[in-house]
Amino acid sequence: QVQLVESGGGLVHAGGSLRLTCAASGSIFSIPAMGWYRQAPGKQRELVAVLDSDGSRNSADSVKGRFTISRDNAKNTVYLQMSSLKLEDAAVYYCYADLIVAGHPHAMGYWGKGTLVTVSS
Question: Terminus-to-terminus CA distance in the chain, angstroms?
Fold first, then answer.
């Protein structure tokens, strides 16, 4: 059974920083892509940033220059360093992994349960 467990959310003042961590566990063969989405109240879930195993990355324009995604492939872990946080960054942040389970031929998408980021003025 594959699990994605996020940590690092919390309350931060606008302009502050937080670091989110997501660790994948289970019978994992490889993780082609791993990243973060977020969902604010009343809004659709949106991509924040994703990092492929080959180093390719994609991120939302709204976070470029402020958020940095990184991975530790040996630990099946992805990080999101968030700086200069704005009120509009407040949301539940979900970890996502496109991964291949050992013994299976194809990658499948997995989600974490989410971690809440609250930004105060």
Answer: 40
Which amino acid appears at position 9 of this protein? G
* Residue range 63-100, pLDDT digits in tens: 999 999 999 999 999 999 999 999 999 999 999 999 99
Average pLDDT value for residue range 32-40: 98
How remote is the C-alpha of 8 from its chain's centroid? 11
Q: Are residues 81 and 68 in contact, defined by beta-carbon separation less than 8 angstroms? A: yes
Q: What are phi and psi of 43, to 5 degrees?
A: -120, 165
- Rounded CA-CA distance 66/83 in Å is 5
48 contact partners, CB below 8 Å, separation of at least 6: 35, 36, 37, 38, 59, 60, 63, 67, 69, 80, 93
For residue 10, what pLDDT is reported? 97
